[in-house]
TrEMBL record:
This is GntR family transcriptional regulator. One of its GO terms (molecular function) is hydrolase activity, acting on ester bonds. The lineage of its organism: Bacteria, Pseudomonadati, Bacteroidota, Cytophagia, Cytophagales. InterPro entries: RhgT-like, SGNH_hydro, SGNH_hydro_sf. SUPFAM superfamilies: SGNH hydrolase. Residues 1-23 form the signal peptide. Residues 251-272 are annotated as: Disordered. Keywords: Hydrolase, Signal. It comes from the Bacteria. CDD domains: Rhamnogalacturan_acetylesterase_like. Belongs to the 'GDSL' lipolytic enzyme family. Residues 34-229 form the SGNH hydrolase-type esterase domain.
Length: 272
């Protein structure tokens, strides 16, 4: 009997090693970089309830994904590059990281020469983002510019980024990278809400609704918290639909009968 237990004791480290080998190492942490404009960017409290759709995105992933939102208000592909906002990301990219690329709103702003980028230059800039990401063995994902709220007199949501969405789609096809067509998906969503209810998605405030906007706000480009979350959900749904490897890192939903965890002495287990 003593010899038997001695053999078991000696074999235990090897058995543990085998079990761990089959279980596999936990996935390494990766970064998901977001580059784009104000529709995606983080916001300061002085502009609340304006919310970029990149802000709630972090809540959809598990702890192995670090969302690094580098999107900036008012930037086009040209100014993002000119201000040296891209190169530090390239230098930091690691194998397995992702870069979500969503521009267009400011590139198409012909009335603002400081940011306007003609479609062909926009194409070149997207290609630069894509190819430099790939050289670092990271994964670029192109996203068409998210729609502005614009209904015609018959209540139909209009397409607001025709040329720039087309270029984005063409670059994705040419370089065989994933495309998330946020333009179309967000138009469909806004249409589902309708001309009146879709105001809930955008920064539409009456005078007195919020102290940050005492005189109200009528903005058909930027989102409320609800709108930002809905737009982020569109991107997440497409990650799942396209079976991108990133989908494996989405947060797992709690069971329906789970009790949400709390802090302190009243903490409850997550399952009965």
């Amino acid at each position: 009997m003593r010899i038997f237990f001695s053999c078991i004791k000696k074999a235990w480290p090897l058995s543990l090693f085998v079990l761990l080998a089959f279980a596999g190492a936990p996935p390494k942490k990766i970064k998901l970089y977001l580059i784009g404009d104000s529709t995606m960017a983080n916001k300061v409290k002085q502009t609340f309830p304006e919310t970029g759709w990149g802000m709630p995105l972090v809540t959809f992933f598990d702890s192995t994904v670090v969302v690094d939102n580098r999107a900036q208000n008012g930037r086009s592909t040209r100014t993002f590059l000119a201000e040296n906002r891209w190169q530090p990301i390239v230098d930091a990219l690691q194998e397995g990281d992702y870069v979500f690329i969503q521009f267009g709103h400011n590139d198409e702003a012909e009335n603002y020469p400081d940011r306007y980028t003609p479609p062909e230059d926009y194409r070149k800039n997207l290609i630069k983002f894509v190819t430099e990401t790939q050289r670092r063995k990271a994964s670029p994902v192109l996203l068409t510019p998210i729609t502005r709220r614009k209904f015609d007199k018959d209540g139909h949501q209009q397409e607001t980024h025709v040329a720039y969405s087309r270029v984005t789609t063409e670059v994705a096809k040419q370089y065989k990278v994933p495309l998330i067509d946020l333009d179309k998906m967000s138009r469909d969503l806004v249409q589902q809400f309708g001309a009146e209810n879709s105001k809930l998605l955008y920064l539409q405030l009456a005078p007195g609704d919020h102290p940050n906007y005492p005189y109200g706000k009528e903005d058909n480009t930027h989102f409320t918290e609800l709108g930002a979350r809905k737009m982020a959900q569109l991107a997440i749904n497409e990650i799942k639909a396209q079976h991108l490897p990133l989908a494996e890192r989405l947060a797992k939903p709690l069971p329906k009968n789970a009790v949400p965890p709390t802090k302190g002495k009243d903490a409850q287990p997550t399952t009965p």
